[in-house]
């Protein structure tokens, strides 16, 4: 095991002095970055700025105990820390401020995130993992200021898992579980539920986690006393303080942001607790100042009085650090030693300004060159069209008057020129069109790539393996199929683990994991508390560290607790890092038609609309669900798999090749062929649609039934359009509310697949009522589409076109 910072500080005075001066130098560089960054925004070179001034000293102290293999999960205030661990340079700081789309110049997000959002690159260009133990790691920041907390839990828990779990390649992710996960959060955001849920779970699980709370007394303009039950968060957390000999709770350390030696001691102790004893630690950093206020959007003079502003000036961390250095002296062998003189520190101050100014200048020039090169490649081609339309000269003049040009201005000019010369067939226009297509592809990649995996392991590339059945294949309950498939999965993939409410000891509420904990142990098959947001967070964090977590949310209705993390964090990981990080979590849940307001909801449209970036898979039975698990464990895309809640006790034939067969994503299945109408559905509703199709056959209507299987991605080969081309009628049947998933499916079929060309009747959607289903089977019947509803409404389509053959029912 690595020794901790507190155990290794036996150094000479010269080394001590050098460390202090290097910290001062880094702190001043960071401060000057904040000052110049604000000026760049206010002079119009950047859109918005939010900076870490005032937090330099605690972040320097935190960086001293941050080792290779460790992870940070934070938000947008930690620039000094990022500098100190070499995850940020002056140039990359300003490149992000300008939204430079170059991964080389802005490796955190390639211009996709506003400034202050840091990340290291966990992946090689081909999407394979780097050796994360050989670098200091920052999981990509997000702006929702407590949203980073659930992920932090998973990053920390991974270390605990790696103490007992080994697999081929695991040495790239952990050195015997010796890593710490560091979290940072502003004090006002400790009022958020995600903070409390994460800390509670960490204290129960006893994971190596250090949470730093930057406490400046405000949440933008709202003082702390209006944020929480008590102004002092450490006092509020006193009940979390662990007791000697107990394996619960955390350590709480309070320290002042301007007290450099106390900060070093605080973080040394925190590291010792977390790394050596796997105890979560809260470091409450108080008396933090914010010299420039919250952001460039406003001035803190509007809500801070003169007394507060005067105090902040006096207790500015860099001011107090300078005072401490100048006042420090020690006698060694009869000689008084000091760290630095005022003149030496002034020289460092001046050097910091020069370094920052030079870095800003380089970043701005590199960013501007990208735009200048674009202008020079496009503008002459537009000018060549001046003789073909008089308006083009006006467009060029307007463009040339722009003081500052952006990519959008160049594209606007090009598109206006092409619009003005529509219908013209000339070599000059063709040349401009070719250039437009070329630059559009570049910017499409700059701004829209990597929403989903682009690696060789993306889910669409997983080869389909059909289930194998024989005369000896058993008819079993659906839950037995998924259970036995999980058994094969855990045997085949030692990096796979599952966790959720009741997932462990009793094998989940529907027995789909029966006996798995007993066979594979409590680390790999684990129970959790009732805390959905952090169950998801466990999955995200562990997946970022190379494990293959299956995060179980007991019911589909309860996934609403996870939607913030799914939408803001998991769905955007690959996108917001432009392929620099990934988190291939599988979210396991169960839902659709059953009984009760909170056990039969179908919030699929919410999931679809809020979670683009996550695959949404909706198998109609448990064999299909098992196949999707087998598929996704070969993929590096995240996914949610919704098992049919009413399918666990229905009989299915169990495949002989459990753990091997796969269900391809984005592929529909025609489960009944027909010639008169195409019926499209998914999940539990499929059984009812099949029943309705049989009734329609007796009424002289031949229905083709299609199980979508995968909502995202959706029917990649446009097979549904081919069905509509044959039947000329389309009905989408869904248990979501009107305008929900059925609207999404309809848009995909009619607009993307252009199936509207083949319709002889208006397309029809049959959805649930807009309220939650009332209780019991009667509630389901009157709240969601029944076979009677389907038969009558589909029959009405034919009555409208041929009332003699299909006389009205009512």
Describe the structure.
- The protein contains 27 helices and 24 strands.
- With 810 residues, it is α/β, with parallel strands linked by helices.
- The strands form six sheets. The protein has a seven-stranded mixed sheet, with helices on both faces. A six-stranded parallel sheet has the order 2-1-3-4-8-7, with helices on both faces.
- Helix 2 packs parallel to helix 5 (90-97), helix 6 (148-162) runs parallel beside helix 7 (193-205) and helix 14 (407-420) packs antiparallel against helix 15.
- The termini are far apart.
Strand and helix layout:
Layout: H1 5-8, H2 13-42, H3 56-64, E1 71-73, H4 79-84, H5 90-97, E2 137-139, H6 148-162, E3 181-186, H7 193-205, E4 209-214, E5 218-219, E6 222-223, H8 233-236, E7 251-256, H9 260-277, E8 281-286, H10 306-314, H11 317-327, E9 329-332, E10 335-338, H12 342-383, H13 390-401, H14 407-420, H15 427-448, E11 475-477, H16 478-492, E12 496-500, H17 516-520, E13 525-527, H18 532-544, E14 548-553, H19 563-568, H20 573-576, E15 586-591, H21 604-610, E16 615-617, H22 622-632, E17 639-644, E18 651-653, E19 669-672, E20 677-681, H23 685-698, E21 703-707, E22 710-712, H24 719-727, E23 730-737, H25 741-752, E24 764-768, H26 776-783, H27 787-801
Helix pairs in contact: 2-5, 2-11, 2-12, 3-9, 5-12, 6-7, 6-18, 12-14, 12-15, 13-14, 14-15, 16-22, 23-27
